[in-house]
Specification:
The protein is 84% helix and 0% strand. With 92 residues, it is mainly alpha-helical. Helix 1 runs antiparallel to helix 2 (51-85). The chain is elongated, with a radius of gyration of 21 Å. The termini are close together.
Length: 92
């Protein structure tokens, strides 16, 4: 069974498009995250936030910071699994 070359090309196009869209989302969402960090820092300085809440917020900020790496890792794994699933053997 021959490989569908159009399907392979479109998958590369769609992955590239998804990376561009996610990079744009990250750029757009970063200032909003900065606002929440500034507000939380003010509350921490006032003493109105518990230590557990501050640590939980710090964890969430760390996850937000590294979510592009998680997305790239997911796409990398997806591409490996998809390539193994679509692997073709020469039967001649």
């Amino acid at each position: 069974m021959p490989m569908n070359e159009d399907g392979v090309a479109w998958s590369f196009v769609m992955i590239t498009l998804a990376l561009i869209i996610l990079a744009g989302l990250w750029i757009v969402l970063t200032p909003f995250a900065g606002y929440f960090v500034d507000a939380m820092n003010d509350r921490i300085e006032d003493g109105s936030i518990s230590t557990q809440t501050a640590e939980a917020f710090e964890f969430n900020v760390t996850i937000f910071t590294f979510w592009p790496a998680f997305a790239l890792g997911g796409w990398f794994l997806f591409s490996i699994i998809r390539a193994l699933y679509e692997r073709r053997f020469d039967t001649s």
